[in-house]
Amino acid sequence: MEKTQWPATLDLRNPVQLGLKWLKDTDTRKITDVGEDGWWVGWGYGDVTGRMVDAFILARQVLGVSEPYPEELRTREFLISLFDPKDGLSWRPETSKRRRAAHMFDQSSVLFGLVTWWMESYDKTVKKYLERLIEGLWQIAEKPDDYCYYPLEVYTPAGWTEDYDEFRDGRKNVKADPCHEGGRQIFPLVQYYELTGFETALKLAQGLANFVMYHAGVFEPDGSFLERKSRVAGHVHSRLATAAGVIKLGLVTVRDELIQWGKKVFDWAMNNVAFSFGWVSEMAHRSNGGCETCCITDAIEIALLLARNGYPEYWDMAERFARNHLLESQCQKTGGFSGHSRPNDYTWIHYATGKPDYDVAGCCSPAGVRGLYLIWDNIVTTSNGRVDVNFALNRTSEWVEVKSFLPHRGEIHLRVNTPCKLRYRMPDWAVQQDWMVKINDIPGKVSLDGTYILINDLRENDEVVITYPVRKVTVQEEVMKQRFTVHWRGNTVVQIEPQGEVEPLYRRANLDTDEVSVYEMKPGGILAHYIHWF
Length: 534
What we know:
This protein is of the alpha+beta class. The protein has 15 helices and 21 strands.
């Protein structure tokens, strides 16, 4: 293969570019004008806007674009307009249908957006808003002992009070769910502390984690969360996001018991509410709500945290989730991601009508872009002069170019750009006796390092070609009383049976072939400052 030619296999820049279309088309300044009874009037403020700020930046990181887009600048402006300088919180404004409120779930998405914004820009104004928000959350949190929590979903202009008719229809302000309103904040708080040493972020994260783990009664000893003690009981997205935050906290503070707690929660979820190809139920006690793309991204985030820190068996899980249900959840017309897909169909069965319905979700669409970024960022990683290729996915980098012929055939071309020691991770289904490695067309001397092939002393422009047979299997899977026959080629699902009735997924006959076409890859931009997430 010529240096400029690439196999026409998965290039994550393509779905990211499509996701960027959704971000640009979804102008948050207009979102809240769709009608005061609409979903966007609440969640379209801090939650979706914070996620969009995050996703715009991560999309540009993948595409190599340095300057923010005009739509991105408007989204940032809208996000900042929601802050109250008196307390630092992000507020949903007053309307004729709703009263002014600071929703605790919103604050977590705003934290994610601001942390990513600061990671790219090091902007002092962003830092000011971030630290003011963190200090504001610490001030309003209840702190009875070695833990802290938010007692209600919504903080009001009068403080914490149940007697607050947010919707102007007689409803009371309900009690907070420990994960939905608090636990999801842990990850960005720890991330910001790790980057800056801002102590209030660590105090708040530790307090929220202690509450969820030891006092809230949300999780059973086996990691399960089938409780029904809140309005969003069994909400998988917030539980997985909480587990990700606790694992991150354990890694940063070197507390293995936190890592093991989060891993136990994650393993229970993957064994009970998820298929191996990345469909993850929105709710832990029912499957008819479908799969939120947010849940897929949470699972990828946790799998990568664990894979990079002593649990390499999770690499393949992350790759399977990305190659399959994350990609299948993206709407090819709008670029948005599904909030309620079934394992074999883009539609879900609506609670009220009992009929199939489409849902490209405002929270899931930026979350999908985030999931794609997490995989892209981990295709090639470096440590102490060693370069690791963790995923067999096409990518250029300053260290190595990765050209992958999967799922068509097990053939990987690695062209070295910087002299290095290189490791290539073998998939868990590849049989060692069948591996072949050539360096500059000559059988190469390699060794094994765990699940990796290790090659020392590579020079600039060396080319490594690794080949192995592709797994082709058909398996039966059953999750939450749903049974499917799944046809695999490598880590890629090429067909699911029974086929969906409305908008079938996994119509991938084009991937179930040995033939691979080639194309001239468009060069990506070079950023002066790449964000590395972990």
